[in-house]
Specification:
The complex is a heterodimer of chains A (152) and B (192). Chain A has 7 helices and no strands. By secondary structure, chain A is mainly alpha-helical. The termini of chain A are far apart. Chain B has a domain of 74 residues. Classes of the chains: A mainly alpha (152), B mainly alpha (192). At the A-B interface, helix 2, helix 3, helix 4, helix 5 and helix 6 of A face helix 2, helix 3, helix 4, helix 5 and helix 6 of B.
Chain lengths: 152, 192
């Protein structure tokens, strides 16, 4: 009986409530996205025309902070708030990173947005970007459909 | 005194050296909160898996285990909403003069929003130009990121933070694709 209660409680905890913290990180991130103009179509065009350092500064400093953070986590064996060891899966190379990378680059320059900024752009009131997002979901679905027939 | 100064700061665009490091901190934040690796384009896969799996093996997995990612992107949407409501920049978006000059040639003169109203709006959606920019562009974002196994967040930030060379290759290809499209193909599309 006691065990049963425990299982119920545990299941509830693992369902949706703990995910609120990721929603909050997302809110913080969305505000950052807008205020840093990462979601700006104009900023993306400047980046691909080498007309401004802004985007390079953002991505570069974000990567630098990321590298130092991951290094510190590994060096000091930092655990999650639940006490689990932190694990980061390595990325394995396949040709998709080249073909898919180029295709995403095309899409990035056209829409002026990578997937994250699409959500923030809709939030700022650019409702037509819902269509861009739906199209991106369609693109993801078509990739899933043809995955086995594509070179990897 | 402090109130207005703070509000002015919140309203202005933030410089890269403040925003960049804060974006980088998302990497350890997600790892420490629950062993989550930073990545946004996966959310599009989870949406497919939850809504339209269609018996495709790529979408047959327990997407509920990845629900955190959907909460995360919903948060990004809310963040955009909050910023637009509370800390709107009253000034027009500043862009490099060379870009403004080029865009003026295509009739893009509205700098009220980060998303240019002149080309990305509901009316232009039904023109060839708008179709390329929004529908084709969006499709390439979804198809390309999944094919590459990640986007700017998963490869360029998370992957490079973990010193993964496949992520470096992906990031270089993102940039090559963007350079080709923005400089060689976009002028043709904007002229439509």
């Amino acid at each position: 009986m006691e065990q049963q209660t425990h299982i119920n409680k545990s299941q509830f905890e693992h369902k949706w409530y703990p995910n609120i913290k990721y929603l909050l990180v997302g809110v913080f991130f969305g505000i950052l996205f807008v205020k840093s103009e990462v979601i700006s179509w104009f900023r993306i065009q400047e980046m691909f025309r080498l007309q401004s350092f802004h985007m390079y500064g953002i991505i570069g400093s974000a990567v630098l902070v990321g590298i130092v953070s991951v290094w510190l986590i590994k060096k000091f064996n930092v655990k999650t708030i639940h006490g689990e060891p932190i694990h980061i899966s390595p990325k394995t190379f396949h040709k998709g990173q080249i073909y898919g990378g180029l295709l995403f680059g095309f899409g990035w320059a056209l829409t002026g947005a990578c997937p994250g900024p699409l959500f923030a752009q809709i939030g700022t009131g650019a409702t037509v970007i819902i269509v861009t997002l739906l199209s991106a979901i369609a693109g993801t679905w078509v990739y899933g459909y043809f995955k086995d027939r594509l070179p990897h | 005194m402090e109130g207005p100064v703070m509000l002015t700061f919140l309203q202005q665009p933030w410089p890269w050296y403040i925003a960049g490091p804060l974006i980088g901190l998302t990497v350890p934040a997600l790892l420490i909160l629950g062993n989550k690796t930073f990545g946004i384009s996966s959310s599009l896969r989870h949406i497919c898996a939850s809504c339209i799996p269609a018996n495709i093996s790529y979408f047959k997995y327990d997407w509920k285990n990845e629900a955190w990612n959907l909460f995360f992107v919903f948060g990004i949407f809310l963040g955009g909403l909050i910023t637009a409501q509370l800390f709107t920049d009253p000034n027009p978006v500043e862009v490099a003069p060379a870009l403004a000059e080029e865009l003026a040639g295509y009739g893009i003169v509205d700098y009220d929003n980060l998303v240019p109203e002149d080309i990305l709006n509901w009316q232009s959606l039904f023109t060839l130009k708008g179709f390329f920019l929004m529908v084709v562009g969006g499709f390439l974002v979804g198809f390309g990121t999944r094919y590459a196994g990640g986007c700017t967040s998963g490869h360029a930030i998370m992957g490079l933070s973990n010193l993964q060379w496949p992520s470096l290759i992906a990031t270089v290809c993102f940039m090559i694709g963007g350079f080709i499209l923005a400089n060689l193909i976009l002028p043709l599309i904007l002229s439509l």
